[in-house]
Amino acid sequence: MSEGADDDRGLFPRNVGEQLAAERARQQLELSDVAARTRIPLRHLEAIESGEREGLPALPYSAGFVKSYATMLGLDGQALSRAFRDEVGDAQRAHFEPEAYEPVDPNRIPSRLLAMIALGVALLLGMAYLLLRFEGDSSDLARLAADTVQDNRPIPARPAAPAPVPAGPVAPTGPISVTATEDVWIKISERDSAMTYFMDVLVAGQSFTLPDNAVDPILRTGRPQSLKVLIGTTELPPVGKPDQLVRFYSLKRDVLVSIVMEAAAAAADPANATDGNVADTPDLPEAFRSTPSGSDPVGDRIGSVEPAPDAGRRREP
Predict the structure, then answer these.
(1) At a CB cut-off of 8 Å and minimum separation 6, what does 290 contact?
(2) Would the pLDDT of 249 be above 60?
(3) pTM listed for this prediction
C-alpha cells in the first residue's frame, strides 16, 4: 500500500519541491551540480526540495531561487515560482492562529471617584482661564458697565477759553513817499549836506518817492495841510498845523515808524493820545517844530523860492 503511494507521488508530484527533485533525478543530476550551476546555496536547494520553509530566506528570495532552479532544469521557471508563492501563502494561512482577546485588567480602570475629581479639576481650570481673559479685556468691562449701570452724574462745565490777547501794532513797511492833495511847494533834502532830492511845486495828485539811499532826509513846506506822508500804504498823521512853516520835518524811516507806532498806541489808549503832529511834540528839538509863516529868521536868511509863473501858486519862503 505504501509502495503504491510512493510511486504515485513520484509520478504526480504534489508540490514544487517534489517536481524539481523529480526532474533533477530524471536528468541524473546531483544537488551539488545544481548549486554549482545556479550559485544557489546547497542548503537552500535541499530546503526547497524537502519543503522545509524554516530554512529558506524571505519569500521573494526563495521564489527567485525556485525560478532559477526550474529554468536550469528546462522547466517553466515563472510558473513554478508563482506556484511556490501560492504554496507558501497557503501554508501561512493554514497555520495562522488568531491572538486570543484578553480582557482589560479591572485594576487598570480608574474609579468613578477619580474620574469625577479629574472632571472637576478641568472645570475649575476652564473657569479660571475665562475669568483671567475677561479681566484682561478692558473693552468688555466697559461695554458691560455701559449696559448695566447708567451714569447720571452731571457733566462738569468746561473752563472758558481765555480771551485772545490783542496783537500789538505792526510796523509799516514799504517806500517812503510824499503825496500832494493840492498844488504845494516842497523841498526834500539831506539834513547835514547840500544834497537836494526835490525842490519844486508838487502838483495835486502827484507823489515823490524818497530814494532808498537817503540817510537823514528832511521836508520843508509852508502848507503842510496840502501834503500826505506815507510808508508804503500807511498814512502818517499831518505834517503840521495848517499854513504854518515846517522847516525840518524828518523823513527818516525810524522816525516815521515811531510816529506811526505812537499813533496806533494812542488810538488804542485815548487817555495818552496827543495831537499826532511831530512838529509840535514837546520832546523834539526846536529845529523840528513848525514856525508861523513870515516869522522864520532862518527862512529870511535862506531867501524865497519863486514858483512857476503860470501856476498861479502862492510864493513860499
Answers:
(1) 224, 240, 241, 244, 245, 246, 247, 277, 279, 280
(2) yes
(3) 0.36
